[in-house]
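User: Hi! I'm working on a homework problem where we have to compare a predicted structure to a textbook description. Could you give me the structure for the chain below?
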Amino acid sequence: MALFALLADVVLVTHFCYVAFTVGGEIAILVGGWLGWAWVRNLVFRIAHAASVGLVAVEALAGATCPLTTWEYRLRILAGQRVESQVPFVARLVRSIMFYDFPPWVFLVAYVGFAAVVGLTFVLVVPRRGRRT
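Assistant: Happy to help. Predicted structure tokens:
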């Protein structure tokens, strides 16, 4: 059971890192574009970022639950953590940052809107191949 709890925590932290990459990446791109940071125009980074955001938007449009969320919940059940009080403090803290109790349409609008902003960023902060001269 302890192994399942540990694995659930690993999935949660991985999920948090994914969210941090998508949100933090967009902030970095906008700020970096304004300040002239060359690395935010890196084409590989920008494609990876856009793909990560696009995946979330497509999941929302399809009405699918994020596989990382499903995986974490299943591991918590296998660990015997059936109620929130049985989840470790740090995991509860991370979950409180990531998960909110809003109607599904709010998330759909937020995810698709964020994907649109990321798409617009490709026009505002144009990515480049190779090194800048």
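For your comparison, note the following. The helical segments are 2-35, 43-62, 67-78, 89-98, 104-124. The radius of gyration is 17 Å. Good luck with the assignment!
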